[in-house]
Amino acid sequence: MSNVSTTWEQPLVPPERIPEHADVVIIGGGIIGVTTAWFLARQGVRVVLCEKGHIAGEQSGRNWGWVRVQGRDEREIPMMLESLRIWDRFRDETGEDVGFVRRGCYFAARSDKEMSAFENWVRLAQEFDIGSRIMSAAQIREYAQGSAINWVGAVGTDSDGRAEPQKAAPAFARAAAREGATILTSCAVRGLETSGGSVSAVVTEHGTIKASTILCAAGAWSSLFCRSLGIALPQLKVRGTVVRTAPCDSVMNGNLFDCHLGIRRREDGGYTVAHGAILHHPITPSTFRWGFKFVPALRKEIKVLRLSFGKEFFDEWRRPTSWDLDTESPFEVTRVLDPTTGQRVVAGIRKNLDKVFPQMAEVPIVESWAGMVDTTPDVVPVMGAVPELPGFHIATGFSGHGFGLGPGAGQAMAGLLTGGDAGIDIAPLRPGRFFDGSPLELLSTI
Length: 446
Ligand SMILES: Cc1cc2nc3c(=O)[nH]c(=O)nc-3n(C[C@H](O)[C@H](O)[C@H](O)COP(=O)(O)OP(=O)(O)OC[C@H]3O[C@@H](n4cnc5c(N)ncnc54)[C@H](O)[C@@H]3O)c2cc1C
Description:
Helix content is about 30%, strand content about 25%.
């Protein structure tokens, strides 16, 4: 499949009407950029968002749609709980329906080892007053009716939810535009101008916008953008393949993860399904540049990690890492990162789906797509100001968790960009943590 379709009507602002000034410029129209724009615009901040392709064209329109606190790293939990509250009220506040419903999130275990990890999570969840619970084998079988798997048990959080990725970021972008934000699509940011050592403007393919506060929310492109400014940001890409089925009878109504399958009910009556046990990392020059920082994370995921060597290596090899701001940048060359769907992975998803839910064997897969997850060495986001370049901020590296976290992250970044107060403690996510001698912390529960 090429270019996931979203509900964004474009262009909203023709390139010749690009503003000359802004209080804040946001680079990237994924869920992080658009939610930040919405919160800023509601405070009366003159915000301009520049997206090189279309809103939600990359990760934010290609993900599973899970909005979960279950299984999160402790550093993400307060932001995720805030996020859930924002997802809850978004429709009432804006009239936009993004299909958000709280139908729960359930991880089913095939072994006692998995169950003991779930018990660790439940202990952590209790500290935050999250109602996660251990479920018996009978309870999970009753939930996932008709499953052929003899799970030993499960962990469940009934208050978790889901939303429709193709609708969500475009809806936040529309809401931001109604509040006065300028949302520019097909408008790549090539780089920044500085004055006295601080940021003074962004240079886009259509002209320059003067601003002293910039947010880089460029997803899988953030590391390259930062590199062009001389800022080191360790980030690697992992490809995820996803399918959707035709509408069918319900086999369960929430989000269910089993070590071979991730499945959630869709608003259209079908299911979004992915492989539970494959993380695909195409080797690129970045693998060698950052690999040593990722060793602990790679070791943890070694069983599910698949490495490949091919086109992605040579694409990145040929891509420049710096360029003149009056010439085409790599962000214009690749308007939308649209990775090839792995047909073997799609076949594997089909096989696993039929094993877990044999009653779905006749339900056709009607679409498949892939997305590149941007991941960091400790698998949690990078959020905060960049001290080496006053005025420049980063919110990226959401490591496969950013869709659900988006509204909470947007609110925190808007607070940081306006008054310096994110409202929650984002210090553990600061950009400098990979270089200041801090020990690398990896999720210790699930
Ligand atoms: C297959 C898959 C499944 C996932 N499942 C889930 C899930 O169930 N739940 C969950 O919470 N998360 C999930 N995620 C992760 C989630 O989708 C991401 O963490 C989140 O969407 C990241 O949002 P973002 O705004 O940071 O990045 P993106 O959505 O990637 O947006 C970044 C945008 O920046 C633009 N851009 C880049 N450089 C420039 C430039 N120089 N100028 C202008 N624009 C630029 C890009 O075109 C892009 O549109 C999944 C991800 C994938 C790929």
